[in-house]
Amino acid sequence: MTAQKRENALSVALATLLGSKARAAILRLFLADPTRAYYQRQIEAATGLPIRAVQRELERLQSIEFLYRHTEGNRTYYQVDMLFPLFQELRALVLKAASPLDRLRGAVAVNPSVLIALLDEDANEVLLVTTGSEAPPIPPMEPYAIETMSREAFARELADRSARIDSLLTRSVDLLGRREDVVWRRIEAAGYSIQKGKGVA
């Protein structure tokens, strides 16, 4: 069985187990990065689901207290309650059935030292920009080669317009979608426009 067929079979099994493909897609989004809050249109864009399906599944997941919501301005955000009794088991199950890229995203997303994760899809290389100089404890994830760089080192190379950083920023996609850190302002000010990876809100 090829890796793609196995991945598809696991996805179908997860959807069957969880009751619907829409619910499985939403759970994949929330459980890959359980520290983030999402509003409905972000979920729609990341999953490709119609907004009504998103709303229906959010209502169901909130009704069992798996998700909680809060309002900021005119937006309502939803986030996983990581104290939900089955959170760890469900996250492990969803990530086991996920693609290698989603498993990598899941490992990176819960590490508080990782600010930015950029993937060069052609080379299968990932750059993690972190708060410190030590590499975060991310297990090896085939087929991806992972490099770590501190926020300061990245900012220096960006300011110097190093060929390596230029090449990466022109070809890479954003694996996390968290764009609050000042490093993103510097990337944008330098004229780079990095797309979010598939399934990233």
Write up this protein.
This protein is of the alpha+beta class and 201 residues long. It has 2 domains: 94 residues, Arc Repressor Mutant, subunit A (Orthogonal Bundle); 90 residues, Beta Polymerase, domain 2, CATH 3.30.460. It is 47% helix and 18% strand. The protein is built from 9 helices and 7 strands. Strands 6-5-4-7 form a 4-stranded mixed β-sheet. The chain has a 3-stranded antiparallel β-sheet with strand order 1-3-2. Helix 1 crosses helix 2 and helix 2 crosses helix 5. The chain is globular.
Question: What is the global morphology?
Answer: globular
Number of strands: 7
Structural class: alpha+beta
Average the pLDDT over all residues and give the rounded result. Answer: 89
Tally of discrete structural domains = 2
CATH class category name of the largest domain: Mainly Alpha
Strand content: 15-25%
Return the string of H and E elements: HHEHHEEHHEEEHHEH
**Count, helices:** 9
Strand order of the largest sheet: 6-5-4-7
